[in-house]
Every structure is written in structure tokens, then in C-alpha cells.
Amino acid sequence: MEGVIEVNGLQFKLPPKPKKKDILFSNLKKREQKWKRTEVPETLYEDTAAQHASFIQQEFNRRKNGVWFMNNGEPTYITGEHYYYLNWCKLDIGYPEYRDRDRRFFIFWEICKEDNNCFGMVMVKHRREGASYKGASMLLNEITSRYNSHGGIISKTGVDAKALFTDKLVYMFRQLPFFFQPIIDGSDNPKSTLSFNAPGQKISKNFKKIVKSEALNSKIDWRNTKDNSYDSVKLVRYLCDEGGKWVDANVEKNWQVVRSCLTLGDRIIGKCFMPTTVNEMADSGGENFKNIWDDSSIEERDGNGRTRSGMYSYFTPAYDGYEGFIDEYGMSVIDTPTKEQAKFIKKKIGAKEYLQNIREAYKSNTTKLSEEKRQRPFSVEEAFRNDSLHSPFDVEKIYQQMDYNEVAEGLTVKGDFIWSKGVQDTEVKWIPNSRGKWEMAWLPPEKRRNDIKMKGAKKFPGNDIELVAGCDPYDHDTTTDGRRSDAACYVYKKFTMMDDFSNVFVCEYIARPPKAEMFYEDMIKTCVYYGCQLLVENNKVGVIKYFERRGYGEYLMERPESTHTDSSRRQQTKGIPSTGVAVLNAQTESIASYVYDYVGQNPETGEMGRCYFNRLLDDWSRFEPDNRTKYDATVASSLALLASQKHVLKKEIKVVPLTFIKRFSNKGVISKRIK
Fold first, then answer.
1. Which residue among 26, 214, 290, 375 has the highest number of C-beta atoms inside a 10 angstrom radius?
2. CB crowding 375-394: b at 16 or more within 10 Å, else e
3. Per-10-residue mean pLDDT, the chain, length 675
4. In this structure, are 20 and 154 located in the same domain?
5. Does residue 419 share a domain with residue 529?
6. pTM (2 decimals)?
């Protein structure tokens, strides 16, 4: 659509393009058309302001509405916030340079501001991207242009919040031209609060007393990093810096507190900007921030049209806008540069290859490689990667597989299982559905679906030699971090001599239906369709009782022999306990072994593994053996692997010669027929 651009999945309607003569730098030759800062006229002072009223008004208009400028022959629009940042917000290294990456960033922020259902923007960034400076400018722009408003700052520690306030925001404010500086109360170099209230006895330079009506009665301050910081405070802007690195407080809990500070009834009156790099997921705030990130997907909204967090997620790969790889027009040099770009940046390669070379140098050190990817991520998944030192699994192989799955097509399909014509105990049908609860990597041949063996009045699964399933059921408890646990189930295809496609997870189910019995029925449908037994944790007996009541008790597997202890061997129980050293160690070791053998790139053959479910891989990468309740997918998949190790008793088969086939003895020189 003409006049509409898309940024990170959201559309923005550009303002009408002005006549060419009204576009900045249109009078220059194409090669000379690039961003240049508008300087303050040399003769403009407070006492000459009236003579420069048109210039001052122009800058207020640009600050509010943005501008169009010619950039190498292309009419380019930047928002008012972006213009304010570029033209008036001085950094420690001078005024910012134009970056096309920043243009997209500020447009996305504008989308968030204009959306009445959005609380703001949560951003995963790479190191030294300058997001804190942008956040400070956005806060300063808003609070210095409206009455009775409050802007707040918080960071990974109180020390960091104070530094952001004094070294960045206050410094910017002091460098603003006088016409953008509201009346302040007290020092223009404060340590905790920049207050735009009317000073009691202050006299202006022209000896006119300042009256209260001239002041904004607004302020910007910072707070120490606590779960309840800014509780009950009315905010119109909130800069939550480095939320992925909080140590002494929980950023997720703080957001729940601050979210209410940005509302008046059901109306959103304030916006949050939450940029961060991400610390190791096992500690230091990474996991808490990821929960906010996951809850900020624009694809998942509640009945009110809002994401679960209320914010929208934003990410740009590290190679887009990476310093040192920007051409003279502010465009990112990602791939091989053109002749002109190479001459300007003085490099023959693009940012992506440059960063890839750094990664290649760390290839033999997975810990350093993981850290490099987290600090300069190419994808969101890389930003949230764990340090391999904290994982019982080979995390780098897991990440290799995830990278492969992301670019490969057609590996899985989503859908639902339903009873034929809605009648239970008939036939389970597979219905493709992009929003379905199940995700499939393989479906059994039609003749093997719904394979039920009857022994008397009992139903037995027909494919239990080849297929097994593991399930981590849910009850009404919450996890240790206060979040509801999902149910998870995986179907696993065991090794068979007759089929090359084996040792593969073929079905994934991660959901939490509103009623537990709906989930139990889902498990029956899964087992019936695949014709397999289910190994389930038996501390939550609901699913076991439901299977037995519905006549599918033989679809429940007993505890595998490999997990038994001397005291448990006499126990004949459905399912497996969720506690006990033997069980927990067996679960962890089963996944560790599977990852080593079947995940990631095979160093000998170069072939890639066949674990196609990235939700499962991601869960493995973050798994904490001492805090396993949060990892539903890991638990369910480990049970499927343990189920695959069940010893199957085979009946002794008598070999009877087939009389109609001629048989020969090959002893001696000549073969002789055996009669």
C-alpha cells in the first residue's frame, strides 16, 4: 500500500509527502543529498527570540510532526521523536548521526505511541546500540513538552539508573537550546529529579517575576531497582533500562506494578520503553525478562486486543546498523558492499560476514561462542541463549539444530485431533490448523492410524512396538515463579530396521485447556491416533484415572525397568514418580544422550539432526536440573525417551521350513538338493 510501511510486523501510515521543493536537501545533487543537522542561527539568543520566531516555530513543528528529507535521491520520512534526537540531543560523542536502523526504530515507537491498546515497546538489543540514549531523548522530549506529567527511570541497579539520569538525560537537557528548556525548579544539574515546577522566588533575566502558570509542573526522576519501584505513581513515560540484567529485583514483578501506573481505568495514559541485552538465562534476570518478551508478541492478543504484557516486542539483528558498517547515507552495509560503500567504510566485507568471522574464531570454545551470540545476536533466539557451562546438555548442538529448523521449510505442520463426527471412541481424525494444539513432524501411514488391538474387553495400542509417548500433566498448581504450568506431550518414533525415519520426536503438544478433562481427552486422542502407550508422571493422578475410566487403561505404561531401584522393582504401578534420584538422573541422562546422538550437525557426516520442534529445543537449552518444574517440554520429552527404553518381551518363534521351496546344501564342489 502506497504511503504505508511495515516495521516488525506492524504498519505505519506515512504523512503526506510534501512538494519536492519543501523536502529538505531537494535542492542538492543526488550524491550530496544526506542528513545534515539544522544549526541554531548565530544571532539567536533569548533577547533576540522575537526576531527568530519563525525558526523557533519551525523546530517545534518538526519536533512534533517530523520531517521529509532527500537521502541519495530517496524522499525519506523521520518522526518528530527521531528529529528531536538527531538534531537536538547531544551525546557524549556529539550529536547522533543518521541511521536507517534508527529511522525504523523510531517509526515502531510511533506505532506504539499511537496505538491505544499498547503500553509501549520491549526491545532486545545488541551491545552498544545506543538504546539508552534514545530512551533518554524520548523521555526528555515528552516530559518537557506537556503539563503535569511524570517520567521515571529505572535500570539494572540504582547506580546505573542514576548514571543514566545524570550522565545522559540531564546532560542532554543542558545542551538543548533555550527555547526547548522549560522553567526548572532548582539546579539544572540535579542528581535525582529534574523538576519543571515554578520556582518560588526566581527572577528572570528581564527582571520579570516568573509566575506558576508558566511552568509545566512536570518532572523526571529515577528510582532504586526494586519489585515495587514507582508503585502507585502516575506515569506518562517509563524508561526501564536493561531489564534482562536485573539481579536484586524481578523485572517481571516490577512491570506488573508499573503497568497500573500507566493507566486510568481501562485507558492507557502512559508508555514504557524497555530495552536490554540479555544476561544468562539461568540467573541475572534473563528468564524474568524473557517472560515479558514472550508475552509481548503482536500475534497473541487477549479479548481486549492487547498482548499479555500490553507491550509490543522489537528486535533488529546485530549486523543491521552495526557501527563501522554504515555508508555515508546512513544505510546498513550488511552483505558485500558496493564499490562506493567499500570506499566509504574502508572494508571489503559486510557486517554479517565480519561478525560471522568472530564467531568462527570461537568455534572450538562453545562458552565464548554462546556469549558472543547473546551479546551480538542475529536472532531473538540467540539473544536468549544459555551459557553451556550451566546446562547438562550440549547447548551448542541444540542451537545448531534450532538455526537449521528456522531456515528449513515444511518440517512440521500444526493441527488438531478430533473424534470422527464428534463421537468419542470412533476414529481420531487429523485436521490441519495453523492455530492447532498439536504440531506434527510425521503422521503414520493411514492403515496404521487408530490401530487398536482388542484382548477380551480391553483395548491395547497397535503400534506400541514402534511408537511411545511421554506426558507431563498439569494440575491447578502454579510453577515456582508464579506462572501457570502447561501440559506437554511428545510422541517418539523408536528405532526400527525397516524405516530410516526413526529415533525422532514426531508429535508435540503444549497447551493448557481451560478444563483438565479436556486435556486428558486430548491425550487419549493422541494415543489412539498413533496407537502408542503413554508414560505419565503419576504424582498427578487425574490423567491416569481418566484413562482407566474411559477404557484406555492399557494405553498407560508402567514404570520402565531402567528407572527402577531395588525397592521399587516389586511395584506394579501405572506411570512414573516425579521424584527420586534414580528417576531424575535417568530423565536428564536420556536427553543428554539423545542430544549427543541425534541433535545438531553430525561432525562425521555433516548431516543435520531430526529434532524439528524449536519449543522443545529452547526448553532443553534453558533446563535447570534443580528447578525442573518450569520445563514442561523437557520433562515430557524425557519421559518419551525413557518409555522408548522399555524392555519388550518377545515370544520365541519356531522356524518351520517352507516345504514348497527347494533347499540346497552348498558343501563340497557341487550343490546338492536336500530332500
1. 290
2. ebbbbebbbbbbbbebbebb
3. 87 95 96 97 94 96 97 97 98 95 98 97 89 96 96 96 96 96 87 84 45 78 96 96 90 96 95 87 72 93 94 96 96 97 97 95 80 88 74 87 87 96 96 94 94 94 95 64 74 83 95 92 98 91 94 93 61 76 87 95 90 94 83 94 69 36 40 44
4. yes
5. yes
6. 0.77
